[in-house]
Amino acid sequence: MEEVDCVVVGGGPGGVMLAYLLARGGARVTLLESHGDFNRRFRGDSVAPAVLDYLDTLGLAEEMLTTLPHTVVSTFGWHTSEREYTLADYRWASRRFPFYALIPQARFLPFMTGKAAAFPGFELRMRSRACRLLHDDDGRVQGVAYARGDGERRLRARLVVGTDGRNSKLRVLGGFRARELGAGLDVLWHAVPKRQGDPAVSGLQLHSTAGALLAVLDQDTDWQLGYMIPAGSYRHVREAGAAPITEAFTRRLPWLADRLGTLTAVNQMTLLPVRITSVDRWYRPGLLLLGDAAHVISPVGGNGINLAIADAAAAANLVLPHLTGAPARLDAACARVEQVRRPLTDKEQRRQHRAERSARGRLERGLTGPPPVLRAITRIPGLPALNGRQNSALIRIPRPCAQIMGTT
After folding, report:
1. Cβ(45)–Cβ(217) under 8 Å?
2. What pTM value is reported for the model?
3. Residue 354, Cβ neighbours under 10 Å: how many?
């Protein structure tokens, strides 16, 4: 049986970041990704100023922003036909990177795994789907069995980390209990091609019209269109047909009209049931959950990718010194990861729950524009900037430890 220090299951932002950091710190780490590539639609792409600062500390930010297509956004806004509301201003959130960088994950993830491949301890295995956990005689997790090709393979590891997303297989295999906190919105996604002369749309904007809340994300060659609906209302929306959806986009964003003619049925769109999920604990002996596997974050706020990367940064700092030591110390390090990160994600989940409940109520009443409390932010000078700094501070990503930076 092959053996490594750590096996990371799931090649999303948290998984690739953790694998990179551990390999840079000298660990033997294998990253298992179930798909054959990273090119999947409708994934978050908003990299926050705090994460850009962290990547800069690692020496990666400048190359990433130079070589990968991306959009730079300095504010988060809510746009109606009457006016634009600036709810958060990020121009004071970082001295060097006072903006969000919208980078498609299909570009970001290969960039990070390419950087990880420079370290001898890193290996990426695509089309490798974890199917069961391996245990020692005391019940401690000591690796995974995974399907690749025609057979099952086994990989022993001192630590298994599940970064396999909102529908985490590792969470189920590990016997963790998940509790839905209740989400007010679901999102229907649809992609249309970009064309020369299209306006610059940041992606950190909500567009509202009576009874509709819309999002438009730049996905390099496509526009990713989001149409938000009250949670659980998909059947009624489907029965009403695509016309109300295309009319809402055409009314609010008329430059998209010539590309919406092919959208004739709601089932042509991809339904993303928004979930805000809390997990009873993030670890058990030999197994740690991070990112959406540990705490499902609503995509509406756009911070899932950033919280997953912050989880990975904290985990790498804490577990690296103990990957080759006593199991009890490694378990204590995993417990510390949850102790450090959980209060922040719990706070974000509570905030999202309140925001989505409010947005659902406004949708159902046919109201446009943000709720009164958010409108107040736009009227008071300095509050959007304060909101932008606070949003960035919520991520709270730690500096990489000396072992990662090679200064020990």
Report:
1. yes
2. 0.92
3. 13
